[in-house]
Amino acid sequence: MKKILSTIFIGLLCLSMFPMFAPHVKAESAYLTDIVRLTPNPYDDRGAGWSPDSSKIAYGAFADSWYRHIWVMNRDGSDKTQLTFGNVVDEGPDYSPDGSKIAFTRYGLRGWGIHDIFIMNADGSGTPEQITSTGLARLNVKWSNDGQRLAFYYGGAGTTTNEIHIMNIDGTNEVTVASGTYPVMNAYWSPDDTKLVYSMDDGIWVVDTSPPYQKTRVFQTSLPTMYAVYSPDGNYIMYASGMYGQLQNLYLIDVSGNFIAQLTYDTKFGYGFDWSPDGQYIAFNSISSGNYDIWRADISIQHTPTKWAVILGDNEYKNSADNGRGGPVNSANDIYGLLINKFNFPPANVHFRTDAVGNSADDINTIDVENELNWLIRNVNPGDTAIFYYAGHGFQGTGGIEYLIAHDEIGLSDLAFAGYINKIETDKLLVILDMSFSGGFITDGQTFWQGISGTIPSWTDLAKGTPNGRIVLTACAQNVTLPALASLPSRIPNSIRLPRDAKETLYWSPSTGLRYEMIFTHCLTMGFRGSGDSNGDGKVTVEEAFKFAQTGSFFSQTPLMYDGYPAYGSSGDLYLG
Fold first, then answer.
1. Which CATH number applies to 307-563?
2. What is the per-residue DSSP string for 354-386?
3. C or N terminus of the chain, fewer CB within 10 Å?
């Protein structure tokens, strides 16, 4: 659809927030196997922290009914070695990312209920360095993945303070990033250190680790939660939940807040757990044997491939002169019906939005487009099929930069758009852009004649580096110009623009009657519904549907395709069924 703007504002891209999430079709199952008790100690053992290579577990072990020390053992429970000694109460060990140090807390140096943070050599040599010596108790210390900061609980029994703090490893720059009702038991870093996950009475929360420390509840629970940790890949969160002093069990959700599985049923969990860096094991505390012991289990998460789609039809704009005639809405509806009815996409996994003229409540702004892209990033897993479809305005700015133009007319550049798409982790990805200048999202400098002659362009943006597992379909080329003939008078510009752009065209359909549709989407859906079945096998692939659409819309525009499925330059077509 051609963009006609009297004024165009290309502004800073809006940053997406971390929203509450709606449930989707469950695609994972998870379970624990080979659950083994590692510390048959007559006294309690508390806390567990994995070494970076997942070969060892550090923990706090009672020497008698009062004193406790830091120990380390192999992950099978062998070669138990004591690291701290004396009349001390040490617990909650956590390895530094390079494995050379262990952070832990020591109790009672400043009176009842007060824990301070110490750092020691991982082999137990030397004297542990005391990092904190003032304030309230600090518990459950966790080392950031870059090795520069520590996160921990701050507060204690008998106080109204229940906070999550972070600070540098030398004890400087301690700040509060979250607070809540008791108990805010622990904080655990995301793999990229940008977030912390923590538990509260009402569920699982996530907080940014940089100002203004935006926090969001990602999962609400009916029972209190104690402890929460990220999986090493950052895709899942494990937490413990149950009534205090009674049966508590381990559960798994994904980072979007979708429930995956209950992992244990009689754990009597307590005092922390940790996920091994290689993702294969968890170490946790349980009182099932009569004392709090360290247990280890293998964890398996199985993903059943599913299908996801975002479908956006943008027909109304801030400048009413840019409003469409219904084509983007109608064509988005056609794509939705195609995916749901023919290719069996789960409706709960399809985000479908249209922006009709005269209804401000359904406006699709740039931030909405970005939020939908982030939704795909969060939910799509390797092996899933994912589709992003957009029908609306496009714009070409200076320097050959193309923009997706949503209702607010801010503009999402081809490079920024590619940045989102590149984060969708699947090898079955289809992007369809039915808008002006959309070819510029995959090509650099391709003209009309190069497009129809099949000349290989200079791939850029969505096609930069010829990524595999991806197909991008655009309604038209980036440039629609021809070199001027030498015989043309000098007053004629050096190029002649041809009127070949994304268009709305009137079509008659027996089911919908006479209406405007985007011509490229119209031909594409016809191809998918059977007209594009070039080999007669009853299955229309993306490539077959595109070839039909390319022919059908030839006299109006020049559709382009980047085909990286299954790999760029290889044979094999993507089938959505």
1. 3.40.50.1460
2. EE-TT-GGG---HHHHHHHHHHHHHH--TT-EE
3. C
